[in-house]
## 1
Amino acid sequence: MTQIFYILIGIAGGVLGGMGMGGGTLLIPMLTLFMHTEQHAAQGVNLVAFVPMSIIALIIHIKNKLIEKRVILPLLLSAAVMTAVGALVSLKTDTARLKIYFGIFLTLLGGAYMAAPLIKKIRNKKN
Amino acid sequence: MQKNRRKETSNPPIAQKNRRKEKIALIIGGIAVGFVNGYFGGGGGMLVIPVLTALIGLEKKKAHATAIAVILPLSLISGIIYLLRGAGERGVLLFGGAGVVVGGVIGALLLKKIPDKKLAPLFYSIMILSGLWLIFFGK
């Protein structure tokens, strides 16, 4: 039964991810809140599952010529190092704390994305 | 050659001469994106997109697609670190992971049909709610 729930939550997160809405940001809390998966384990699933999923998506995007190659290398230059640092620091962070930090991160990110179109509207009106 | 390539992006806010500035902006952005994606095991993509649209001036579709190309190697690196350090549960990995892959294909196909503008605020509200839930009742 647990496995069925894992699959269902995975599908829900995957659908959002495939739509380009940041599926991991919902997959992780669904796993920790509903399935009581440990925070680090939930984060690990998201990272690992992203790889095959995004390879499929990338093939489609490359065919459609939607990839802007010139930005990838400069971004990865710093990001590749920092992602390893982030992972190592995270694994040393206490689970309960990490859960709260993740909650703060989600709230801020959701708030920022929600506010962005409103700010745009106000700016356009002023102009 | 370089100039031609630059033309592909719509509405470039940074002048063509300022390619160097653009590179520096990307490297600085990469610091935050990389750390977040490793620390929280996700969410890096949602940070890359505003960097690519606001700072570099990419159109939305291109920004979303390019974000995947950036996050893929990052997830691979941090995913391996998580697994090597034993932060994985086999059941969730196998079944949850399989679900994600299946869902990912469904989501990519659905994207053409569902109006993004209507769905997005709902998605962000759920994000905020689950964030608050984790902060106050996470234990």
Note: Chain A touches chain B through 98 residues (CB under 8 Å).
## 2
Amino acid sequence: MEIRITLPLTQEKLRALKAGDSCLLNGVMYTGRDAAHKRLFELIKEGKELPVDIKDSTFYFVGPTPKKQGEAIGSAGPTTSYRMDAYSPALIALGQTGMIGKGTRSESVIEAMKTYGAVYFGAIGGCGALLSKCIKKCEVVAYEDLGTEAIHRLEVEDFPVVVVIDSQGNNLYKTGRETYLKSVMEDK
Amino acid sequence: MREISAEKITEVIKRLCIEANCILPQDMKSCIEKSLEAEPFPTAQGILRKIIENYNIAENEHKPVCQDTGAACVFLEIGQDVHINGNLQDAINEGVRQGYRDGFLRKSIVKDPLNRVNTNDNTPAMIYYDIVEGEKIRITLAPKGFGSENMSRIKMLKPSDGVDGVIDFVVEAVEKAGSNPCPPIVVGVGIGGTFDKCALLAKKALLREADSENPDPYYAELEKTLLDKINALGIGPQGFGGKTTALAVNIETFPTHIAGLPVAVNINCHVTRHVTEVI
């Protein structure tokens, strides 16, 4: 059964989520990948103001394809998240509560998620055409010069994700594999 | 001597860039469909169904299957009796430029690996030339995503490591990659040659149909052994658990030095794109 969530993702909402939960996200999220994260991180280090409000924000690690006429966005599936690991703890400390990507996260990211309260969601990698259907509006809000890597503000409807790492540090990449392997052993 | 114009090559490359990115090849579709039939884990079945839904949407709406429309890897087998009128390299890059612009594909190439400014037209292409007999040119376009490329590995094994060393290294590469390369994956394995030749063998292995087997029965068997071992890892589609970690293992080999046993593993995702045209 899917859990419908309205963004922004507050502490109250995220504390209820557990690794393995299927969710449908609704509302506003921001895109950001390697280059944008590097810029945000540099601003944080210098103590400068950021171009978007980080408090309770959800970031989707994605670099979409260009849109055709009549489309809100081109194909838009997740990129691999570990490349943002160097930057995520600083954003989480500033109040970022949601991240959407695919693949593993570092211990320091998970520790920050537990300390400050944040959730890491997985979207299906390689399903950019399908996921783009749930994105209703897309506009650049910062770093336009970065092209696909610019920060975009997205409005999404029933955007499908799975909780991969919850705010207690439970990790679906570990438990999912274990559950499957156990089921195979039981069949033997 | 047959003459082929540079303009003709540009036109073909442009078309192949768009086709490769929007239409998943039949060999991949049949591998994914077959893996769904064999997948016992419900979570994994659900993801495989979404993957099928995604490539159908992409094909019907002529959208890229994946937003990472890749580095444009172009493989040319050029007949030695062909003369190309014009600059071949420029013609290929112009085809990529036009294809990525007119096909609404993502521009993912930075001009310098450290100073990282996007070239904004997805050039230059990664071009590989082979000179062969005849008076034709065989062009294969294989856009390569980097989520999976980043999980690739190479190791210079010792001859004494033998086939067991090869198996251990390939399986370890896939296990370490885990959920990062968007499993289910296709595993391209190069064995032999030199350090660089071995890596190219692994990449060329990804061009072979995923539902085909190595023509040498020994290596066909090794492909099967590796696939079984990989699919016993339990990583599953997206790393959420399941049988279907890999859809195929393709091995390419080449003679090597008496002192060496190079092995390269080039990983690709379930969007393993390749399209070929002969002109």
Note: The longest strand of chain B covers residues 246-256.
## 3
Amino acid sequence: MKKNHYQWLFITLVSLVLILSLLTLAIGQIRFSISDLLNTLLFRGSQVQNYVLLNVRLPRLLIVFFSGVALALSGSLLQSISRNDLADPGIIGINAGAGLGVAIFFLMFVHQAKTFAYLLPLVAFLGGLFSALLIFILSYDKNKGIHPYKMILVGVGFSMAASGLMVLLITTAERDQVEFITNWLAGNVWGGDWPYVIVTLPVIILSIIYLAFQTQTLNIIQLGEHHAIGLGVHMKRKQLIYLVLATTLASMSVAVVGNIAFIGLLSPHIAKRMVGIRNQRFLVIAGLLGGSLMLMSDLLAKNMIEPNGIPTGILVSMIGAPYFIYLILKK
Amino acid sequence: MERISNISFSKKITIFFIVFFFSIVLSLKLGAADASYIDVFNAIFAPSKSDISLVLYEIRIPRIIAGILVGASLGMSGSIMQGVTRNPLADPGLLGVSAGATLLITLGHIFFTSLSYVGVLIFSFLGSLMGVTLVLSLGYFSHKKITTITLVLAGSAISAMLFALSQGLGLVFNVSKDVSMWTSGGLMGLTYNQVLIALPVVLLSGIFALFYAKELTAISLHEDVAISIGLSLQVTKLILYLLVALLTGIAVAMGGTLTFVGLMIPHISRFFVGYDYKKIIPTSLIIGGIFIVISDAIARVINAPYETPLIAIVSMVGLPFFIWIIKQKTGGSV
């Protein structure tokens, strides 16, 4: 019965992702019918159709979906290692760190966004890692490991301060650079272009594959620190590895979709409620949920207001924050 | 610690006032256009038509008064909030009160194309009131007692949501520029008129808060204590929360959303004068003023002739302080 339930859920979510993808591809300033879509995907469309679909919408679709997956998995990992249900890369300041890295690099060394597509993920990762390690060190207790609540609080403070620093960067920047940063802060999907896809996607997929091999260890860690150590898990090392992994996933998505919070919080939660806490199952569901949440928000945000839409991150916050509050109150 | 508590309160207040005075003089002197102490003296007591005197009189003095008012309001509202909620981490910025003010300022700009300063103040106050109400309503919806930490977490989520809403609305209705002028502009470009509208409100709120100091001290110690000495808690709390909203609203309308100030100042004040709110309220008024005046002076000087945003300076001081408080309060175990 339980197994069946999981399979149905899996199939439903995959079809949801497919439907949302089709909608993302079809809806916009230029609309595509089903036959148009098929034709264009088989390289038989008109030039305009080809351009819009293959060079604009398809890369954006991939970026949006996979960043959603990455954020969800990053959140799941953070929740596991901190044993705190409220952890999320956006809330605990990893996104802010990655964003700061991107902004500093952008302002100091680059004057056009296009030229640094290949360095961007690395810079984001370094920024994210810096803040993650800082938070880790500040909330680490020698005897007790990561202190669950302290980690979140330090992170909250950290992301507040980071946004202060962002303001500082904005005032020193040129006018068009300012626009980039404010858009980034609001969580606007801006890296929807093939170079960004080529750079970030392999990293995300490799991380997912690595994660797939770690599910058993994650299950053990969930039993509690003492059990895990008793069963031969090197806790400190694993926690650090997973923190780096979570940072990688989060900063890849931050590098291209900007500062988006709450996806990493919502998805694992809903997933756990649906299929229980076994990592083999809930990670899959969480990833799919994260991807479809992002697709849905992006679809709405992009088409709600003509012509430019509102930043996706704003929409995500409007949905995510009430859920977060609900979680806190229920705990 | 022992030595500090031995000094009498009047002596402490005198010392604070001396520091306060010097910080004002220093802040008057420092800036893109350099002024000598003689210029400063002249500008205060005998304004002339010379360039530097005009700079000081027309730009720097209103700005400093605004800084004092913002710092004082945030300091007092933070103190009151920490007292009523009995939460050492309470801060109008962290708990979403400032975000509420920002949201309503945005709405104000959407509904009224040319919003006057008084209008901004009113909307800012209403928004703060909304923020306070939201945070308080958490207590009623929660199944369990709200702890120090859950309040901060929920507050930061409320804050995120309200900011997202106002950002979104600002973008949709094309008013984000007007709004950001109010909410992230720091203390730039405030005129005498604007400052003079806010001044009496802050002063009156401070005096009003002093009337309730005894009740506030009782509440901050323990709710049962307050009840046992015969206070009607609900009314007192309501008035105190109104004061928090009023003070935060003014601070946001003048200096934007400055997180951490309302958190730090009460802690510093308590360190100096202990737990009696009769002393905490005036102390946090003065120390808040000193803090913002000095931070604003640093903001002007650090990268002159360009302005560094005040919020960046405040955050740089505020974050370590915040982490330090968490370390103190959790002490390794919650």
Note: The radius of gyration of chain B is 20 Å.
## 4
Amino acid sequence: MKSKFIYNSILCIGLSFLLGCGLKVGNLDVGKLASAGKGVLTGNKLSLKEQKVIGEQMTAIIVGSSKIHQNVELQRYVNRVGQWVAMHANPETEKGVNTEWQFIVIDTPDFNAFSMPGGYVVISSGVIDRLSSEAELAGVLAHEIVHVEQKHQVRAIEKSKTYSNVGDLAFLAADHYQTEKHGGYDQDSLKNRKIASNLFNATHNLYTKGIGREDELDADEKAVVLMARAGYDPYAYLSMMQIVESIDDNRKTLILATHPKAKDRIHVAFNAISHIENYVSGTKVVEQRFLRQVQ
Amino acid sequence: MNYRILRRLGVGIIAFGACYASLLMATPAKVVRDSSLKEKPSFKATDVGQLAKNQDVEILQRQRGWYKISTQPTEQGWVTLLQVRFEASLSKSGSSDLSKFVSLRQGHSGVTATTGVRGIGEKDIKNAKANFVALERAKQFKVTPQDAQFFAKQAALRSQTITYKKKEGK
């Protein structure tokens, strides 16, 4: 009992140390991450603030795997569509902390979209290339927004062994404290590198292996509702999925690896729309504005 | 002289525009199963023809859950979205005329300026370096809810209150 108390105290001191020093390994802010790992130290779920820190670091990694699209107008346009759709979701809130939505277009020809905890959504220009309307774009974004709203990634992280590694940030921080105590403090120490590498592993696993069939289908089912709430024609979700279905496999390798078959997803979405049929009549497709923006 | 050149240019632009519009509208597709072709986008509408599984058709427009399609030689009618699937598209891997044509088929000219560039794969994420500079830059593109509201109003998008379907057994 006593030893546990001492151990926890050391962990907390370690965390405070890392947080206070703004320690960076490479270009990852280990101090921030160690702070985010604090919730796990006490066995709590990740707070929204902690999710945002982890999400921010993960987004930097995803963005770092490609390059940000140079077209400022396009970036703003996607943020406007995304923000409007997201305003119809009900993400977790905490005292003084809200989900802040940030949409980023990366310049890559594949069909990809990612969402990270805390409200970050990354979409490839290859998606936009293939769509024909704003409602289809809203559909892609709505799917990602639902992942954040329903905390699909957060729960996957919490359940996964990799996450316990990210959660181990706190323990590593304590180790770091001990290293510092005994051998001096080195920014490039192996342990700090391990914290960084754990986050890279968690990001790699989440976005190349996926979060599970159930959650993906849940996002499809809820995305059409979210579209209709925002006034977009939910049937555009189906035509968007038909586009995904028709894309050459080597242009959707990550989607193939992380999502159920498009055919199954189309059926799930179709059924979901049949439940909201009464809300479809006033919805819009918005083709002209979309085409003006992307040509 | 100048007037002639301008006129020719004008005709050329109009011809290109027409061609472009038709490319946008007509999407090659295949019929998924034997189906009836409807006169209107409704199950109650009169049958105007029969479609066979794997028959080639062209999608002309969408109305809610229905596609207006044309078949060879000139038959037109409506089928539900689930009765057809888009023809598989080729990779958009280069800047050849073919790849441009393929991308036009289902969308537009494209915003991905780079040509011959790979997309993101598993290795790219594994080997990625966190780019906080790009992330910081991206923060400039964020918009406020007020901005989004104005944007939605411009397209007459109206909010609706709809609840998510409850999970069975919950």
Note: Helices of chain B lie at 2-25, 97-106, 122-126, 132-138, 145-154.
